[in-house]
Amino acid sequence: MAAIDSLLRTMLDKGGSDLHLTVGLPPKTRTSGSLVPLNDTVLDGRTMESLLKEICPPKRWAEFLDRKDLDLAHEIPGVARFRGNYLYNHWGQAAVFRQIPAKILSFEQLNLPEALKKLCHLDQGLVVVTGPTGSGKSTTLAAMIDYINGNLAKHIITIEDPIEFVHPVKKSVIVHREVGEHTESFAAALKGAMRHDPDILLLGEMRELETIRLALGCASMGMLVFGTLHTNNAPKTIDRIINTFPADEQNQARVMLSSCLAGVVAQLLCKRIPKGRCAVHEILLTHEALPNTIRSGQIANIKSIIESGGADGMITMDNSLMNRVKDGTIEAKEAYMKAANKGTFASLLKPGDLEGGH
pTM score > 0.85 for this model? Predict the structure, then answer.
């Protein structure tokens, strides 16, 4: 057993989701959203290098030493898989490991909005699942792919860095490709995917211009493309995609995006009462006014489109937060901290809720 496995097992025993390793500090775990020490042992540089190198293939270790950053997957057989990120910081080498649930959770288990099933039944278009790091984007996407896998006969190609959820054989054919192992980059894998007759492409992250350009191209060619971005709501997602392009290409990007954007699902994790976390969503679906809104650059109108599309399953993040407060899932203070329009929630706060610098 690798030395790091004992730390990961202890993290799981304590109900943690992430293991943080930094030279000069004891290992820490994120439990119910907060970082807490795993033990009292302060990590030194030699111990850190030993922990990280032991589970890293020599080729990838050389890559880490050269680039100073590395993503990889690690598995404790029969226990769990983890997505690891190696990095250098002021004190030396460091790492964060996030648990990938061994079992892919279903729509029902995650309590995902029914509107997301509509996106799974589309034949083409771009669907973007967005949110900050650690908001559960990968878990939501895995549930959507699992739903497709169980109900539809599709050819699905996933391109990830690293592979997180491995889907079992059901109705669909799913090909998993890992950047750095099976392909040199997201862009190279996307170019290859165009020749592999896929119905659905899943991109672990739409980071770079070429990847976003190719994703738009695939969606415009009749494929259903799922991708992720680190944005907090639908308008910012559309802005981010367009602003990735050089200024002289942004008009063309607006036209492409307006013709192929099928949906945006923005997700945040909130502290659940009494413990644990729950996801809240902002959902933008296709609407007759959406293409012209994107083409004309009137992104401020997106919120109005979402608010008018409630019957179709669209909802703003603030309304999702309010629903969770009303049904007793989260506290008003938690909703206030995550809300765009904080005034909506101010009257629900209890005396002293905002003390402590919030």
Answer: no
